[in-house]
Design goal:
By secondary structure, this protein is of the alpha+beta class. It has 6 helices and 6 strands, in the order H-E-E-E-E-H-H-H-E-H-E-H. The structure holds zinc ion. The site of zinc ion has 7 residues, from loops.
Length: about 160
C-alpha cells in the first residue's frame, strides 16, 4: 500500500505533499489523520488526536509491514511501487481520456476534419486537416488509453 491508496480508501484530501483524512481508529469529526510517504516509499501515518499507528493500521485491516515497500525492492522497483495506482484511479483516468477522444472525434465529424496524413486527404478533398493541437492530443489520448487498459486488463 502506498500513501495515495490508503488516503483514497479513507476519502482523504491532498494536503501539501501528503493527505489528510478522518482517522479510522477514533470517532473523528474533523480530519485529524495525516498520511505521507518518504522517498523510499515508507508510509508515515500520524493521528493528531493521539491514536497509535498500530491501532490505525489495524482499523484499516492492514499490518505494520504494509506501510513499508517489500525489503527486496531495488531503487527502481521502489519508485514504481510508489507510483502504483488503484483500480478506481485507473478507471477515472481511462474515462477522462475516452471523453477527450470522443470530443475530438465528434469535432472532427462536425467540421469535416480528417487525418493530417496527406495520402488520406488527397482521396477526400472535401475534408480539412484536423488542427495540429487536436491531432497531438488525440495521439496522446490513444497512447494513454492503451497504457491504462494495459495496466487494468493486462492487454
Ligand atoms: Zn485517531
Amino acid at each position: 500500500m502506498n500513501a495515495e491508496q490508503i488516503a483514497y480508501n479513507l476519502n482523504g484530501k491532498r494536503n501539501g505533499k501528503g493527505y489528510i483524512c478522518k482517522c479510522p481508529a477514533h470517532s473523528d469529526s474533523s480530519p485529524s489523520l495525516s498520511i505521507s510517504e518518504t522517498d523510499d516509499g515508507t508510509v508515515l501515518i500520524k493521528c493528531f488526536a493521539g491514536c497509535s499507528t498500530e491501532s490505525i493500521v489495524s482499523s484499516l485491516g492492514l499490518e505494520m509491514k504494509d506501510l513499508f515497500p517489500p525489503s527486496d525492492f531495488n531503487q527502481y522497483q521502489r519508485k514504481e511501487y510508489k507510483q502504483t495506482k488503484t483500480k478506481a484511479q485507473l478507471f477515472k483516468a481511462l474515462y477522462h481520456e475516452l471523453i477527450v477522444l470522443l470530443l475530438i472525434v465528434d469535432n472532427r465529424v462536425t467540421h469535416k476534419e480528417l487525418s493530417r496524413n496527406k495520402n488520406y486527404r488527397a482521396a477526400r478533398p472535401e475534408f480539412k486537416p484536423i488542427p495540429e493541437e487536436f491531432w497531438e492530443r488525440e495521439i496522446l489520448a490513444a497512447k494513454r488509453v492503451k497504457r491504462i487498459a494495459g495496466d487494468l486488463y493486462g492487454v
